[in-house]
Write a structure and sequence with these properties.
This protein is α/β, with parallel strands linked by helices and about 475 residues long. Helix content is about 35%, strand content about 20%. Bound molecules: zinc ion.
Length: about 475
């Protein structure tokens, strides 16, 4: 049976319309609403007092890092920068059993669902057992993360990550022992994983993620990118998150990462550059010419002190910007969206820096970053609430204290700049209910399992194992 949703306000082209409706097929796709609807074969869902919007797409997540929330906010424990912060992250990574990987991912994905996220791009680099040996099934942990997304009910694009070395002229870092594979093993495992999961194509998809130029030398990167393109998969990579990463690349190859990728023809419309903070105007032009998407992760980037994306220059060049929760310091797609502009405001001492570019309003531009640009970066089918797209959406309570008092005209800026998670009531993925009036069926069990793991991982722990190596 098809389902017709009738919200009080329906998101449409950067605004809202009253008395709009969306029709969803039994298989979970939006349909054209016919002039005359057969009421005997259609279930009607009235949503008075609610607005209906397309679901958020989280393009860049490391689900296990949910465990380090609150544990790395001390210089004594985690040092003063990104490089030393990794010690705390590696401590968490070293503790997890396959069951824990599943349960921690469920916690992260539950929080995403509660925040209106309907798809996650999981940049997954935990592969080996704690001693650095592959499991009998080398894809065991990838499958655990996929199973976690299925348990919570959100769509996943597993961006299986190649992590081959610690860095140029660096010995292997023991903290990274669970990440390492050879290129040959990586490609074989990727192939096997896609084969094993082909039955779930609509809600489980794949992408290829060479971790960074620090972790994947150029010859391997070329081989992995060629494989990705042969298989028509999205290609995601950390790029220019830290100045030291650029410096090391210059030292090893004589080029910064973006300039080298451009020279080697590695950039393209299927390429997503995660972070892209420390890039020049020439490099912005290279990314724009190649049709690359930038995935910005502002809540993580400010937490790690990475720097600020020049979103104005990047967007003026026509580059699409998507968003990711990355380290899970916060899971709030709208906070990431608004920070794209807020960071520039603080830097420039001006307001609404990204407004009226290419005639788009600021709120509409930021909302696109959290939705349709993310969908494109992950090669999802369709686009927002349009017929033929997967029925991924959420509703907000128009009487929630954070957004009450609006007209249809100003609702989107109120949502983008001020909506609190308490306003998000229902979440639907592929036509299936994931959150029903803020209730997830597994919520209590997921939180309880997570708390046990959290206690075990951090009991008696001094996480001062951090390396401060700058690449
Ligand atoms: Zn990342």
């Amino acid at each position: 049976m098809n389902t017709l949703y009738r919200p009080e306000l329906l998101y449409s082209n950067g605004g809202f319309i009253a008395n709009g409706e969306v029709l969803v097929s039994r298989s979970g796709q939006f349909l054209e609403t016919p002039e005359k609807l057969s009421l005997s074969s259609t279930k009607i869902v009235d949503l008075p007092g609610k607005a209906l919007l397309p679901g958020f797409v989280n393009v860049h997540s490391h689900s296990f890092q949910r465990l380090i929330r609150g544990k790395s906010e001390s210089r004594i424990v985690s040092g003063k920068d990104f490089w030393s912060w990794r010690g705390t992250m590696y401590h968490a990574a070293s503790q997890l059993t396959p069951q824990d990987v599943y349960d921690v991912a469920r916690m992260a994905f539950l929080e995403m669902a509660l925040a209106g996220t309907t798809t996650v791009g999981e940049f997954h680099y935990l592969h080996n057992d704690p001693n650095g040996r592959p499991y009998d099934d080398p894809n065991l942990l990838s499958k655990q993360v996929i199973a976690a997304a299925q348990s919570v009910g959100i769509r996943i694009v597993l961006l299986r990550t190649a992590y081959l070395r610690s860095g140029h002229e660096l010995p292997p870092d023991p903290g990274q022992t669970r990440f390492f594979e050879s290129t040959t093993a990586f490609l074989e495992n990727m192939d096997a994983l896609i084969g094993a999961c082909s039955a779930n194509q609509s809600e489980v998809q794949f992408g290829v993620a060479p971790h960074s130029i620090r972790a994947v030398p150029l010859p391997d990167l070329k081989e992995i990118a060629a494989w990705s393109r042969q298989n028509k998969l999205p290609l995601h990579m950390h790029v220019a998150e830290q100045i030291a990463e650029n410096t090391a690349c210059l030292r090893e190859y004589g080029f910064t990462p973006v300039a080298m990728f451009n020279k080697e023809r590695l950039l393209g419309p299927d390429f997503t550059a995660v972070h892209a903070i420390h890039i020049s105007s020439d490099e912005i032009a290279m990314l724009a010419d190649a049709g690359v998407t930038i995935c910005s992760c502002p809540t993580t980037e400010r937490n790690l002190g990475d720097g600020i994306l020049a979103a104005d220059d990047v967007m003026a060049a026509g580059i699409r910007v998507a968003l990711g929760s990355d380290s899970q310091a916060q899971i709030d797609p709208l906070e990431d969206a608004r920070e794209l502009d807020y960071h520039l405001r603080l830097d420039r001492q001006e307001r609404a820096v990204l407004d009226q570019m290419a005639t788009k309003t600021l709120a509409s531009r930021l909302f696109d970053c959290a939705t349709i640009h993310g969908a494109r970066a992950l090669a999802l089918r369709g686009n927002g609430l349009t017929p033929g797209s997967s029925a991924d959406f959420f509703t907000v309570d128009l009487n929630d204290v954070s957004i009450a008092g609006h007209s249809a005209e100003d609702l989107l800026p109120i949502i983008v700049f001020s909506l609190d998670r308490s306003a998000i009531r229902d979440v639907v993925v592929n036509g299936r209910s994931v959150l029903d009036d803020q209730k997830h069926v597994h919520q209590e069990e997921i939180i309880s399992r997570y708390k046990e793991i959290h206690q075990r991982v951090w009991q008696n722990s001094q996480t001062g194992t951090s390396s401060s190596r700058k690449q």
